Prior knowledge:
Blueprint: E1 5-7, E2 12-13, H1 28-32, H2 34-38, H3 42-56, E3 63-66, H4 75-80, E4 84-89, H5 92-102, H6 105-118, E5 120-121, E6 124-126, E7 131-135, E8 148-153, H7 157-164, H8 166-179, E9 180-189, H9 199-204, E10 209-216, E11 222-229
Parallel strand pairs: 3-4, 3-8, 4-7, 8-9
Antiparallel strand pairs: 1-6, 2-5, 6-7, 9-11, 10-11
Helix pairs in contact: 7-8
Amino acid sequence: MTGTLEYLPPATQLQPQALQHGAHKYHGAIAEGYDDKRKADPKWTIEQAIIEDMIAELPEGSEILDCPVGTGRFLECYVANKLNFIGMDISGDMLVQSALKLMTEDQVAMWVQASNERNTVLPLKITDKNGVLVTGSILQTGLNDKSVDVAIACRITRWIIGEHGPVGIVAMLRELQRVARQKIIITARVEGHKFSVTRHLIESALNGWRISRDEEGYQTAYRILMLEPA
Length: 230
């Protein structure tokens, strides 16, 4: 057994499968093939190395919010560094892929069956990995103020600005500043694209926070940013 499954009270309804635009499209086969399609891409490998380096700096026992957690690409890093995590995503299918990183197929199948019977995505607590997987939105996480040490938001800014415009980026960053105590890690293309998220826009959303680390990804315009209280 690679994980201990514990059911928590139901939280939110399953996302309708008809929502296939933007960040809502990651269901079914798209979710299942997400890692295989990207993990050999230089964008993925460089991004992975930089964010894992940032994670490795965190003290043991730190509380992490990973939203959107997607297929759980950083979960094994959290476990290796003895960090507690909340993996949150709007897609139940992406949460299934995350769960498979840390649990057996039989355990995940039990969770999926229980969720389907209740017509809701049951939050999944993985007790021996100090983590929980749950549906939720980065714009409104439902977490308490200053409830995590670090919030990580990877590959979501283009979808937020594409669907909600600049006001969505401001709302996202305000929410992450609300729930995080120490650090926020985000990725963003800062120029050269119709869905660019500029440094000016990011800085305009910071209230008592600053950009403390700015790393180049696979291109100069693609940045991995760490934010900390000023």
